Amino acid sequence: MNQRKLDHEVKTLQVQAAQFAKQTGQWIGMVENFNQALKEIGDVENWARSIEMDMRTIATALEYVYKGQLQSAPS
């Protein structure tokens, strides 16, 4: 009788362990996807920062050229 109870408990634990392993795998997948999404957000943020710096450089250069043209233009 005790052996049957033990066998039943072993089977139950095996099923629960398999379910836990499956769930853990799903959690790991979700965390990996989340980490990838965070990396992509960081990449976009860095790209936007780079574009912003380029645009400021261009705007400064255009402003410099425009002011130079105003100063050299005959009045």
Structure in words:
Pfam families: GCN5L1. The longest helix is centred in the middle third of the chain and has 71 residues, at 2-72. This protein has 75 residues and is an all-alpha fold. The protein has one helix and no strands. The chain has one helix at residues 2-72. The mean pLDDT is 93.
Topology:
Blueprint: H1 2-72
Extended strand count: 0
Question: Major β-sheet, in short?
Answer: none
Shape: rod-shaped
Provide mean pLDDT, rounded: 93
Terminal CA distance: 111 Å
Rg calc: 32 Å
Strand content: under 5%
* SS field, number of helical segments: 1
Helix content: over 70%
Order of helix and strand elements from N to C terminus: H
Structural class: mainly alpha
Low-confidence stretches: none
